[in-house]
Write a structure and sequence with these properties.
- With 351 residues, this protein is of the alpha/beta class.
- It folds into 2 domains: 138 residues, NAD(P)-binding Rossmann-like Domain (Rossmann fold), CATH 3.40.50; 183 residues, Dihydrodipicolinate Reductase, domain 2 (2-Layer Sandwich), CATH 3.30.360.10.
- The chain has 11 helices and 14 strands.
- α5 links the parallel β5 and β6.
- The chain starts with a strand and ends with a helix.
- The site of nicotinamide-adenine-dinucleotide (NAD) has 22 residues, from α1.
- Pfam families: GFO_IDH_MocA (PF01408), GFO_IDH_MocA_C3 (PF22725).
- This is Gfo/Idh/MocA family oxidoreductase.
- GO terms for molecular function: nucleotide binding.
- InterPro entries: Gfo/Idh/MocA-like_OxRdtase_N, Gfo/Idh/MocA_Oxidoreductases, GFO_IDH_MocA-like_dom, NAD(P)-bd_dom_sf.
Length: 351
């Protein structure tokens, strides 16, 4: 089958990772890069692919079938719309945009034109998440009651040499927690309300370094999330799941996500399933099935999915509208922390 022609807009950290993934894939081929900075242009030259400093020039000249938008968040809207106008399928990195208005504009343009836009919440493509979602859908947990998510890890001091990472919006809520919010929505359903407390007590920067969050889901389940980027801890999906080569393997497996229902419980990433073999009671023994860590590269799976969307074999696993709802729920965490109020994203946060 012919490989799908893909361009990458923005050859920074994640843009380069996408370039490498495309080069490893058998479903897509990298046809061009758009990047104004000298380092990114040298990178493109090293790969032997044409590089344009203006992404629109690339789209006009190369006419790729798909483009990956891996630029700063505030530019996502303009590049996504430029792709949609040309009938080019776009994979927009997360967050889908920097504001809800931009996210809504991308979603509306994509739907109006019938040109798919995917959002780079790559974790949905991880086989662990796929298996967990299937188990929940098949009723392995019964009715969901509670979930606990630990996202506690340590970013070294030099990470904060970049000014925007010390300022409001540059912190672990919008950068890291958004992945947890998206996974909760994907596995457990829509978020009806959000309560949160954030803290900058350790680093003292304008941005938060820790947060405690409580979600009520539309189905009634309650979710607590503990977040910190200044905790010397292994309890983080990125560290435990082994999905990214950026993090070293841990000496022992740890669980980071605990999902509970009326008929069973599931711990991730190892997919440890707890349930009663006979009558359900805390006085009876409970059994444990260890399904085990099913490793697979979610970034590669995402690229293969992009190819199938271009070929109209699949609908996007996460559309621009879906990405917008994840962004809205994540922004609700900041709003809840600032106001001390319970925030209902669908009623109180304008799109
Ligand atoms: N899914 C993930 O795992 C993941 C991980 C990291 C970052 N991201 C997201 O990817 C995006 C980029 O993040 P990053 O960490 O790679 O940032 P980065 O700063 O390393 O890279 C951004 C690149 O875009 C280039 N750029 C800026 N303006 C441009 C323009 N007008 N046209 C073309 N290129 C332009 C910059 O020169 C830079 O090379 C952000 O939206 C971020 O949230 C996602």
């Amino acid at each position: 089958m012919t490989e799908v022609a893909v361009a990458v807009i923005g050859a920074g950290a994640i843009g380069r990772a996408h370039c490498e993934t495309i080069r490893r894939s058998t479903s897509c081929r990298l046809v061009a890069i758009a990047e104004p900075a000298a380092a990114g242009r040298a990178y493109a030259e090293g790969l032997g692919v044409p590089c344009y400093s203006d992404a629109r020039d690339l789209l006009e000249a190369v006419k790729p079938q798909a483009a990956i938008i891996a630029t700063p968040n505030a530019t996502h809207r303009a590049f996504a719309i430029a792709c949609i106008e040309r009938g080019i399928v776009a994979l927009v990195e997360k967050p889908v945009a920097s504001t809800l208005a931009d996210a809504a504009a991308i979603a509306a343009a994509s739907e109006r034109a019938g040109v798919p836009v995917l959002v780079g919440h790559h974790r949905r493509h991880n086989p662990i998440a796929r298996r967990a979602r299937a188990m929940i859908a098949e009723g392995a947990l019964g009715r969901l009651t509670n979930a606990t998510v630990l996202a506690t890890f340590y970013k070294p001091p030099d990470y904060f040499d970049v000014v925007w990472r010390r300022e409001a919006g540059g912190g672990p809520v919008l950068i890291n927690l958004i992945h947890e919010i998206d996974l909760i929505r994907h596995l457990c359903g829509e978020i009806a309300s959000v309560q949160a407390v954030t803290s900058n007590a350790v680093r003292g920067f304008e941005v938060e370094d820790s947060a405690a969050i409580l979600l009520r889901l539309a189905g009634g389940a309650l979710v607590t999330l503990s977040l910190s980027d200044t905790a010397a801890s292994p309890w983080s999906w990125d560290l435990a799941s082994g999905e990214s080569p950026n993090y070293p393997p841990q000496p022992a497996m740890v669980q980071t996500h605990f999902l509970c229902g009326t008929d069973g419980a599931l711990a991730l990433p190892t997919l440890e399933h707890w349930h009663y073999a006979s009558a359900k009671s805390w006085f009876a023994p409970i059994s444990r099935d260890e399904i085990g860590l099913t490793r697979g590269d979610p970034y590669l799976a995402q690229i293969d999915h992009l190819a199938r969307v271009v070929r109209a074999e699949e609908a996007p696993l996460i559309t621009a509208r879906d990405g917008m709802l994840t962004l809205r729920a994540t922004m609700a965490v900041h709003k809840a922390a600032e106001t001390g109020q319970i925030v209902r994203p669908d009623q109180e946060m304008q799109l």
